[in-house]
Design brief:
Strand order of the largest sheet: 1-3-2
Structural class: alpha+beta
Largest sheet: 3 strands, antiparallel
Distance between the termini: 34 Å
Order of helices and strands: EEEHHEEHEHEHHEH
Shape: globular
Helix content: 25-40%
Length: about 230
C-alpha cells in the first residue's frame, strides 16, 4: 500500500518505509509512504496448494461465500514473520477462534479477510504518519477481482474501494514511463485522462461492528508474537 506524500520525503514513526514513488525526467522526485505486507494473495495459494481446500485461486470466493461471516475465526499469515507495521521476525502464522462450528467456508473467509485487516493496519499507520485521512482506496492486482474481498475491504476501512479499468497498475506505470520518455505521450495530464473506474465498493458495515472485529484481529495478531526462540 502506497501513499503519495509529494516532493518531500516523510520519515515514518509507525513502521512504514519511505520510498521514491516516481521521478520523471528533470522533474523533482515524488515520494511515498509504503506499507509492505508479506502474505496476501500467497495465502490463497497456500489454501489451494498446501491444504487442497480449493482447486483454483478463484474458487476461494465461492467457498467463502457459503458462510455469512468468519464464524469467529481469524487467520494471521505470519509465515515468515510480520512486515509493516510490526516488523516482527519472531512471529509465525496462527488460526485463532476455532470451535466445532467452524467449517472450511469460515477458513476461506478468514483467509480473504486477513488481507483486508493487514491493509487496515497499514492505513492506520499512514494516517498517523502523514496526518492525511484516507477518503478512498484505489486497488490493483489479481485479488481485486474478488468481489467479496473488495466489499470487506471497503467495510473495514470505512471508505470506498475503487478498481480501475486496467488493474495491472505496475505494468501500466512502466508502459506509461516508457511512453513519456519516447514522446508517445506528451504529459502526465494526458495520462490521467486515460484512467477510468471499473467498479466501486461502498462501505456498509456499522462503525461499532467494524471496531469490534478489528479489536479481535489485533488480539489475534498478538498471538503470533515470540513464537521463534532467539536463544
Amino acid at each position: 500500500m502506497l501513499l503519495n506524500t509529494g516532493s518531500k520525503p516523510v520519515s515514518s514513526q509507525h513502521g512504514l518505509l519511505t520510498t521514491v514513488a516516481y521521478k520523471m525526467g528533470d522533474d523533482s522526485a515524488v515520494y511515498a509512504l509504503e506499507g509492505s505486507i508479506a502474505i496476501s494473495g500467497a495465502l490463497v495459494q497456500w489454501l489451494r496448494d498446501n491444504l487442497g481446500l480449493i482447486a483454483s485461486s478463484a474458487e476461494v470466493e465461492t467457498l467463502a461465500s457459503t458462510v455469512p461471516d468468519n464464524g469467529g475465526v481469524y487467520f494471521v499469515p505470519a509465515f515468515s514473520g510480520l512486515f509493516a507495521p510490526y516488523w516482527r521476525a519472531d512471529a509465525r502464522g496462527a488460526i485463532v477462534g476455532l470451535t466445532r462450528y467452524v467449517n472450511k467456508g469460515h477458513i476461506a473467509r478468514a483467509v480473504l479477510e486477513a488481507t483486508a485487516w493487514q491493509t487496515r493496519e497499514v492505513k492506520d499507520a499512514m494516517e498517523q504518519d502523514s496526518g492525511v485521512q484516507l477518503t478512498a482506496l484505489k486497488v490493483d492486482g489479481g485479488m481485486v477481482y474478488n468481489n467479496l474481498l473488495m466489499q470487506f475491504q471497503s467495510d473495514v476501512l470505512g471508505v470506498p474501494v475503487v478498481r480501475p479499468q486496467v488493474a495491472e497498475t505496475t505494468s501500466l506505470g512502466a508502459a506509461y514511463a516508457a511512453g513519456l520518455a519516447t514522446n508517445f505521450w506528451s504529459s502526465l495530464d494526458e495520462l490521467r485522462q486515460n484512467w477510468g473506474v471499473d467498479k466501486t465498493w461502498e462501505p456498509n458495515m456499522a462503525a461499532d461492528v467494524r471496531d469490534r472485529y478489528y479489536a479481535l484481529w489485533k488480539k489475534a495478531v498478538t498471538r503470533t508474537f515470540d513464537w521463534v526462540l532467539t536463544s
